[in-house]
Design a protein that fits this description.
alpha/beta; elongated; 305 residues; two-stranded parallel ribbon; Leucine-rich repeat, LRR (right-handed beta-alpha superhelix); 14% helix; 12-stranded mixed β-sheet; single chain
Length: 305
């Protein structure tokens, strides 16, 4: 009888543990997180057309008991994101799209509780981004990927440099209206591997804007801007650069001195829809080793080319 009773107790204990793990994993009860929903296959919380900051806080309060790893906010209208809305959760990815958010936080820092978990922050097609205080992100010690795209970000201010202590490996600022970059815009982001600045209004780039040396930088995207010329030292001390995108810029000359520092390592160079003059100044290209390289461009002059 004792053996039977002991066995029964063990089984009850295991069942209790299993039941608790089931309750605390995956998605919350859908009725308790309305108007949000949860994608069970990925444990991602989705909120759409929310206009009250307290609604987000209430939904996240329920979600604290579950293993939700991502949050997607679409078409929300907030004055700010409550600084403690995510406190007690383990959110690793936060995506905000098609939204109007005046400020990232109601205090001087954002996303309390995500300091050690948030790795990906994506902002797409959002309003008021140009007035956000970048220093509010300073406590996100694990942030690796930051995307601000299609959001009318006109410039990167000096405040942006204050988040360079984060272990950011990817910065994506495509499809904004960035016209100007500080001389040292990305210089302090030493771990940067991918920098995407395509489809902006940038006309000037300088070597001082990037880490030196840029030991980890593998991808540099500058397509669809207004860059007319590249400084002679622009690619110096970039030993890992392999993918370079320069299409749709009014660049007319490919100077050997500019590309020589990276030519042996480059894997892909895209220069479609440029204003390249294909004359004797491009003779150096015919003498270079093109093995294992994907190079595409087009000539605007002379006409026969």
């Amino acid at each position: 009888m004792r053996v039977h009773g002991y066995t029964t107790s063990i089984l009850l204990l295991l069942w209790t543990i299993l039941r608790l793990s089931i309750v605390r994993s995956g998605c919350p009860n859908p009725h308790k997180i309305h108007p949000c929903s949860c994608l069970k296959s990925k444990s991602i919380l989705e909120c759409e057309d929310v206009t009250q900051e307290d609604t987000l806080s209430a939904v996240m309060q329920v979600s604290k008991k579950h293993k939700v790893v991502g949050v997607e906010l679409n078409a929300v209208v907030f004055r700010y994101i409550p600084h403690d809305a995510f406190d007690g959760t383990n959110i690793q990815s936060l995506v905000i799209t098609n939204s109007s958010i005046i400020s990232l936080s109601d205090t001087d820092y954002a996303f309390k509780g995500l300091e050690e978990s948030l790795r990906v922050l994506e902002i797409k097609n959002c309003s008021y981004v140009n007035s956000w205080d970048w220093t509010q992100l300073r406590n996100l010690l694990k942030l690796e990927e930051l995307e601000i795209s299609n959001s009318e970000l006109l410039e990167l201010t000096e405040e942006f440099l204050k988040i360079s202590s984060q272990p950011l490996v990817e910065l994506d600022f495509r499809e904004n209206h960035i016209q100007w970059l500080p001389d040292n815009a990305f210089a302090s982001f030493k771990k940067l591997e991918r920098l995407k600045l395509g489809k902006n209004d940038i006309s000037v780039v300088k070597r001082s804007m990037f880490p030196k040396p840029a030991k980890k930088l593998q991808t540099l995207g500058l397509s669809y801007n207004h860059i007319k010329e590249l400084p002679e030292d622009i690619f110096s001390d970039m030993p890992s650069l392999k993918f370079l995108y320069l299409e749709s810029n009014p660049i007319r000359v490919l100077d050997e001195k500019v590309f020589k520092p990276i030519w042996k390592q480059i894997k892909m160079l895209i220069m479609y829809q440029n204003l390249l003059i294909c004359d004797c100044r491009l003779m150096w290209l015919t003498k270079m080793n093109h093995k294992l390289k994907f190079i595409h461009g087009s000539c605007s002059a002379p006409p026969r080319l």
